[in-house]
Amino acid sequence: MSIGIGRGHWLTLTLLTLAILLWLFAGPAPDTLIYDRAGLAQGEIWRALTGHLVHSDGEHALWDIAALAIIGVMVERQGRSRLVGATLAGLMAVNACLWWCLPELVRYCGLSGLLNSLFVVALADSWRRQRHPLIPLVAVGLALKLAIELATRQSLVLDMAWASLPEAHVAGCLGGLVYLWLADLDIYRRPRSWHKRLSGCRKADKVERH
């Protein structure tokens, strides 16, 4: 299955463009855009968003942006609202973790926390479509990776200028799971099913009256 970016993936393209432009024009870890606890406390709320779109070094930016190009398309193919919901859930989960669970953390940057949220949603969507046995193995591999990173305090993939923050990755995964739970609640399905039944009754009534 092709995962190329097309015109229908404009939201993913927008996020990619922002991340690339910020890297090109602002450089590594720009002071005015990173997640900075003191700045946020002073009302610089844009950092809660821009901190996820800037990176500590070139390798960090390259891997995160490449991963977003793939995972973003996978999620957006299931609906633009799904990408929006998963992105917001990831942002809120990671920001909540940084602010309340890691009060000692001063600075943070990068897409990796958000990417974990999108990856969880992409895996769930892939499983629903094709039930391929490789998908649960990938999910187990993700869980093992997070556990090892939490234990060693090091990234298994990158050697970045800033230390990896596995708590942000875990928070992103939890945000993705919460989004999936909310998106699949029966309360969201019942109105549509009742609407279909009501429409069917109206059509039958029209036929009988005709």
Structural features, described:
This protein is mainly alpha-helical. It has a single domain, classed as Up-down Bundle (Rhomboid-like fold), CATH 1.20.1540. Helices cover 70% and strands 2% of the residues. The chain has helices at residues 10-26, 37-41, 47-50, 58-76, 80-101, 112-130, 134-152, 166-183, 186-209; strands spanning 35-36, 107-108. A two-stranded antiparallel sheet has the order 1-2. Helix 5 (80-101) crosses helix 6 (112-130). The protein is globular, with a radius of gyration of 20 Å.
| SS-derived structural category | mainly alpha
Overall number of strands? 2
Q: What is the H-and-E element order?
A: HEHHHHEHHHH
Architecture in CATH? Answer: Up-down Bundle
| Beta-strand fraction estimate | under 5%
Taking all Cα atoms into account, the compactness measure Rg is 20 Å
Q: What's the main sheet like? A: 2 strands, antiparallel
Name the strands of the widest sheet in spatial order: 1-2
Spatial shape: globular
Secondary-structure topology with pairs:
Layout: H1 10-26, E1 35-36, H2 37-41, H3 47-50, H4 58-76, H5 80-101, E2 107-108, H6 112-130, H7 134-152, H8 166-183, H9 186-209
Antiparallel strand pairs: 1-2
Helix pairs in contact: 1-4, 4-6, 5-6, 5-8, 6-7, 6-8
